[in-house]
Amino acid sequence: MVSMEEEALISIGRFAALTKLSHKALRLYDHNGLLPAAYTDSASGYRYYTDDQRHRAALIGVMRKMEIPLATIEAILDTTTPEDAVSEFSAWWEHQQRAFAGRKGLAEYVTTRLSHEGTPTMKVHTRVVPERTFAFVSKEVYQAELDEFVMASFAKLFDHLTAHGLRPAHTSPEDPTYLIFHGQVTPDESAIVDVCVPFNGMVPPGVDIAIRLEPEHHEAYTPIAKRDAEYPQLLHAYDAVAEWVHAHGEPTLPAREVFVTDFMAAGPDDHVFDVAFPYQPR
Questions:
Q1: pLDDT tens profile 79-137
Q2: pLDDT at position 117, please?
Q3: Any idea what the CATH number is for the domain that residue 12 is in?
Q4: Phi and psi at residue 265, in whole multiples of 5°?
Q5: Cβ atoms within 10 Å, residue 49
Q6: Residue 214: beta bridge partners?
């Protein structure tokens, strides 16, 4: 005689038809615990499900169409309240939107380079930079970590130098600040970045703060307005200066961004920094 519990079970074939999930997907989700079968026949290995599992199965199917990783789906569905589930999903979705915006910008950059046959058109200037002493904080970072590292490091450096009376607590053309990049910083590639604040005088190193002297050098640069300061639009400026240096000399020190004002307080049309390459003229 068949029990009421057995009558309520749905075969894997019927459950697959109801949920539009394949047998292969249902076996995978059972194996990894995302959607365990309600009952598995010990003799045949055949899986059975219950009607109340259809809601979870439907959500899994839709989220997989969105290419949400299985671990993320599990984190969303295993939250304790609907509000928590919505919060988890929203966090993932916002991250995807930011990633898409970045890819869209890269696509526009590639299109521009292709249409211009790879030749940047930005105006490049030159100058001689005097010998300077930097206090700096250095760290290897990915793009997602860069902003937080830069803000925290500038705050630490200004606190250290102003405490010794060696630096005004602001950035200006006369008192610039620097980001020096020892490689490309992207979502997938990390590099060492130095956050630098020049000063005059003598000061001891601090916690995570080092001191170095940079020699006088020639520099090729192009000014950047705040509206053009985001990655990947900024790649056009790096390309332009790199091409100019390749045509007129040899690079001598890592590329940098030389800030001439408070970036956060600046308007969209304000000149906020220069993309600069130290070089030796031919």
A1: 989 999 999 999 999 989 887 877 777 787 787 777 776 556 789 999 999 999 999 99
A2: 60
A3: 1.10.1660.10
A4: -85, -10
A5: 26
A6: 132
For residues 132 and 214, the answer to whether their CB atoms sit within 8 Å is yes
Contacts of 113-117 with C-beta under 8 Å, sequence gap 24+, read 113/239
- Report residue 4's pLDDT band, with 50, 70 and 90 as the boundaries: very low
Number of domains within the chain: 2
Domain that holds residue 37: 4-78
How far is residue 150's CA from residue 184's CA, in Å, rounded to a whole number?
16
Q: Are strands 256-259 and 177-181 parallel, antiparallel or unpaired?
A: antiparallel
CATH for 261: 3.20.80.10
Residue with tokens 């869209």: 104
Same domain, 27 and 151: no
Q: Is 28 within the bounds of a domain? A: yes
Looking at the domain assignment, is residue 262 inside a domain?
Answer: yes
Residues in the chain: 282
- pTM for this prediction: 0.67
Alpha-helical segments (H) within 52-164:
54-65, 70-77, 82-115, 143-163
